[in-house]
Structure formats: C-alpha cells, structure tokens
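Repro case for the chain-ordering regression, as requested:
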Amino acid sequence: MVRAVQIKRTGGPEVLEFIGKNIGEPKDEEVLVRHTAIGLNRYDLEHRKGFRKIKDLPSVLGVEAVGVVEKLGKKISDGLKVGDRVGYCTAPPGAYCEKRVIHQKYLIKIPDEIPDETVAAVLFKGMTAHYLVNQSYKIKPSTVVLVHGASGGLGQIICQWAKNKKSVVIGSVSSDEKMKIALKNGCTYAVNYNDKDCVSKIMEITQNKGVGAVYDPIGYATSKLSFESLGKFGIYVSYGQISGRAPVSFSLLSSRSLFATGTSIYHYKHDRFTLALTAMEIFEMVRKKLLTVRINKKYKFDEIIKAHRDMEDRKVSGLNIIKIS
Ligand SMILES: NC(=O)c1ccc[n+]([C@@H]2O[C@H](COP(=O)([O-])OP(=O)(O)OC[C@H]3O[C@@H](n4cnc5c(N)ncnc54)[C@H](OP(=O)(O)O)[C@@H]3O)[C@@H](O)[C@H]2O)c1
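-- result from build under test --
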C-alpha cells in the first residue's frame, strides 16, 4: 500500500482525499517508480474542478513526478535499470502518490547533475513551452511576442525561452509586483493587463505594428487586449482558459488576417522520440543556465490539499513542487 491523493468527483479542494492504494507489481513494459518530488501544476487544479477531463473517476491526480526506478516488468526494452532516476509528465493523471507503476514509454532518464526537484518543477512546463515557441508559433530573432501570465509557472519558462530565441518579449501580468518577476524571467518589457493604456503601450513598443504572437493561458479576461495587440497576420496561441473562454470569430480574425490556435501538450509530445529529444534540450538549457528554474514553494506530501487551496485562492503561482521525503 502507498499513500495517494485521489478524487471521486470533481469540485473544490474538499474533494481531494488521502487514500492507501494497492499498486501491485509492474507487468511487461511497466516500471515501479518511487517518487521523490511531484510537480504542482494549475493543470491538476483544472482536472480536479472538471475544467479538464479525467477519463475515469475515482482517479489519483497529478501529471508530473520524478523518482527512482525500484522494479522492472519482464519486457523492458528502453535500457532502464533499477536505481535509475526518471521523470514523466505526459502519462494519464496519477502522480500524487508515493510510488507508481507506469508504462516505460512515459519515462525520461534524468542526468546526474540535475536535481530531482528542478526536474519536477520544469519538465511539464518545459515540454509545453518547447512546442509553444517552436511549433505553435516559431519564434524568430527580433519578433515581438506578448506573453500573458508572464509571472506564472509556464509563463516564466516561455519568457526565458523566447528571450533565448532573441525575440522581444512583452510580459503581461496583473500587478506591479508581478512585473518584477516577469522582468527577472527574460521579459524585455512588462505591462499590467489591467492598465487601461496597456494596448497603447504595446503599440508604442512595436511602433504601431502590433505583436507577432500572443501566448495566452488566461482566455476571457485577456482576449480583447490580445486581439487588439496583434499585428497583421499575427497569431493568438491559447494554451489555457483560466478566466473562461476567449470569444473568437472569423470576422475578428479577418480584421487583420489573424490566426488562432488552441493547443495541447498531448498532441505535440505524444511519442517517445519527441519526449526524449525535448527533455535533452530542456536539460541542456538548464545546464547552460539558459533556463533558470526558480522554485517558489516546496509543499510536503501531507500539504497537497493546502497547496490546492493556495492555488485556488491565487496565493501561489509559478514553479511549485511537492516533496516526498
Ligand atoms: N495546453 C497545454 O499543453 C498546457 C500545458 C500545461 C499547462 N497548461 C495551462 O497553462 C495554464 C498556466 O499554468 P501554470 O501552472 O503556469 O499556472 P500558474 O503558475 O498558476 O500561472 C497562471 C497565471 O495566470 C494568471 N491568472 C489570471 N487569472 C487568474 C486566475 N483567475 N487565477 C489564477 N491565475 C490567474 C496569473 O498571473 P496574473 O495574476 O499576472 O494574471 C498566474 O500567474 C493553466 O491553465 C494550465 O492548464 C496548458
């Protein structure tokens, strides 16, 4: 039996419950992993609330964790060994537990010099940022991008990555305090999206050309600003809808021949090769200090419900993890 945190129905933090879970033995291509650190993601909160679908309930929550291989199934073909340090972030929910049996196809080996906690904080967000800046909209040097939620977890990684691609990054946040975090994470400029002159500021920065792309996890609350900030042929990249759906129509898009895309990590990072290649790139950037992983808060396993309350109450955002000692 291992300790795990599950939900039987969607709802507020009160639906989270600690249980004892019988995980059994790894079969065939499965591996038993003892977790050392779990990534805390707003995605988990959205699963809990039902904004993002979970296939079957009851379900243990959590999409990202790091740990040590303890046992192997009989058909392991990926060179995995007992004692290897591994991480994952694209398996079905189930990371909020002390140990987990998981298919080998999701596992990424972690290089010796990168600590577990760093990986737990950056793997999911790094994988997502990677496709956003390379595929959803391929950032080129000197292009100007607007990144909403720039002080948030994913926002921090997108901004640093876009800066590495030598683009001009405008980080958009909801308070002056968060502007400091945005600037620390590679933004060339920081703006407050609640400021009524925000669009004018963006037009001033872009010399009235508008931005090439907007990266938006917020949706409804920032969509008007997003579309007003886009230049001709610009693209609105939606990767979340924290405040509700962004209203998008063809007449809005045709006003400047704009594009819009809604994205999911599970489409871009679906196969083993892509996962391993992207992970290598993330680890290399961390090693070279091109990506700084600033862990904001470390919760204990016993504090998972509190961590969800903090996310819900907007007391915590950014890169946060759950430690298993
Ligand atoms: N599509 C994908 O493949 C994919 C993958 C991973 C994550 N995501 C999504 O990315 C989004 C961000 O995740 P994250 O872990 O980076 O979250 P986070 O650290 O909590 O950051 C979210 C940011 O959103 C802003 N925000 C605006 N309205 C908010 C509200 N009502 N409540 C809370 N925050 C609000 C906050 O910044 P301000 O206060 O400055 O606005 C906050 O910093 C989530 O919606 C998640 O589901 C998508």
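Ordering looks correct now. The chain is about 30% helix and 25% strand.
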